[in-house]
Design goal:
Layout: H1 3-9, E1 18-23, E2 31-37, E3 42-47, H2 55-69, E4 82-83, E5 92-93, E6 99-104, E7 109-110, H3 118-134, H4 153-166, H5 176-184, H6 186-189, H7 191-197, E8 204-206, E9 215-218, E10 224-227, E11 234-236, H8 238-249, H9 267-280, H10 286-290, H11 292-313, H12 325-342, H13 344-352
Antiparallel strand pairs: 1-2, 2-3, 3-6, 4-6, 5-6, 7-9, 8-11, 9-10
Helix pairs in contact: 3-8, 3-9, 4-11, 8-9, 8-11, 9-13, 11-12
The structure holds adenosine-5'-diphosphate, 2-acetamido-2-deoxy-1-O-phosphono-alpha-D-glucopyranose and magnesium ion.
Magnesium ion (MG) binds at residues 27, 213-214, 229.
Length: 355
């Protein structure tokens, strides 16, 4: 452990002396560390991404949502627990401008990068569906928007076109195929936002980042334990949550797979997630149900466009571990979108089968 990390950890009243602190997990946004104390008690330390400009508001959101969710938790591991600083704050602001937080480590749990069985994926649907269901009566107006326009897909297109016009790294010339793919689907991009504006879809409190690795399952029962990564909890559409889960978890290959022939959207996983989500969220409206396939497609298109934008921009937002990783990520997303387009009728039939 570096002296720097030691000095950060000194700001938190941990169980005993920290003896280990190393990078951990596969998140793309925050810098996450596993901390182990001499007693064996473990924590998660995170340097909050500089993408979050209002850290005070962000942490207020997380504190109030976790406080609210705790009333439903049967197990103490059922909700994220913030470890307050020695000054009684929910995070520590270092004089160098970085912001840090500590959570209890959720023990005896599994965090999966892909479902090991369809049942795991079903349980993740129950976890995210129940999370939204539990927040139905939460006072949404008290939440700030940590990342404004987060799933405003037309706004993501606007940013894409801005970066493309500047082409700051001179990368556009080699990716015309991907650029054309995005531009050809601009009409789809606005569908959900339009329905929201017209009152055809309800605004709910949603998680907005429902990747499988943002949920913890119990290691023994493999049942949902806790929804994590609450940075983006804010008012949104149920279709964002449903769609993002399909994008990541119903994919047959990793998000940065280079062999695109391996990448498909697995219809059986789509079916099982739909089943779990509808069971956990029985109050979805007819329009929301009808648009579930569109949610999956738009979230995948949006995510691919964000990866491509970041690639063009020089990889500033999503953490990359090798050259071209954001381009590879964009390509898998576009392959998935294409596959969904080919399976469109089947996706609708599956949704209808649960009526
Ligand atoms: P990011 O926003 O970068 O994705 P996350 O909050 O999702 O950051 O954390 C990254 C990873 O760290 C998670 O996918 C999970 O593996 C692990 N993690 C985060 N919080 C906890 C926790 N409280 N207990 C156990 N593991 C955690
Ligand atoms: C990021 O934080 P993480 O790694 O769980 C991103 C999501 C993307 C996802 C793509 C705050 O999720 O929006 O869908 O990467 N989170 C943020 O893997 O931008
Ligand atoms: Mg995460």
């Amino acid at each position: 452990m570096t002296e720097y990390l030691e000095s950060v950890l000194a700001q938190f009243p941990l169980h005993s002396r920290p003896v280990y602190c190393e990078r951990y997990g596969c998140g793309h946004i925050n810098e996450t560390y596993l901390v182990v104390c001499s007693s064996g008690v473990r924590y998660i330390l995170q340097k909050i991404s500089p993408a979050f400009k209002d850290v005070e508001g962000l942490m207020r959101n997380i504190a109030s949502v976790t406080h609210y969710i705790r009333q439903f938790a049967e197990d103490p591991r059922g909700v994220m627990t913030i470890v307050q600083t020695v000054d009684g704050k929910d995070y520590y602001s270092n004089p160098d401008g970085s912001h840090w937080r500590v959570y209890d480590f959720i023990e005896s749990s599994l965090c999966l990068q892909k479902p090991e069985t369809p049942e795991d994926f079903y349980q993740s649907a129950v976890a995210f569906g129940s999370f939204s269901q539990q927040l139905q009566e939460f006072p949404a107006e008290t939440l700030t928007e940590p990342l404004p326009h987060f799933h405003d897909t037309p706004d993501r297109y606007r940013i894409f076109k801005e970066v493309l016009a500047k082409d700051p790294c001179g990368r556009a010339k080699d990716i015309q195929k991907e650029i054309d793919f995005v531009l050809a689907r601009e009409a789809d991009a606005g569908v959900l936002m339009e329905m929201l504006k017209n009152g055809q879809l309800p605004l709910r409190v949603t998680h907005n980042d429902t990747k499988l690795n943002n949920v913890m399952l119990d290691e023994v029962t493999r049942k949902p334990l806790c929804v994590i990564d609450l940075d983006t909890v804010m008012p949104g559409l149920s279709l964002y949550d449903f769609g993002d889960s399909i994008r990541f978890g119903a994919a047959t290959a990793a998000e940065d797979e280079q062999d695109l022939s391996k990448m498909e959207m697995d219809l059986e996983l789509f079916r099982i997630y739909t089943k779990g989500y509808l069971e956990a969220c029985p109050g979805l409206t007819a329009n929301e149900r009808e648009m579930l396939p569109m949610g999956a497609k738009i979230m995948t298109l949006e995510c691919g466009t964000r990866f491509l934008t970041d690639y063009l921009d020089g990889d500033h937002y999503f953490a990359v571990h090798r050259d071209g990783q954001n381009l590879d990520r964009a390509r898998t997303q576009f392959k998935l979108v294409e596959d969904m387009e080919n399976k469109w009728d089947k996706m609708h039939e599956i949704v209808k089968s649960f009526e």
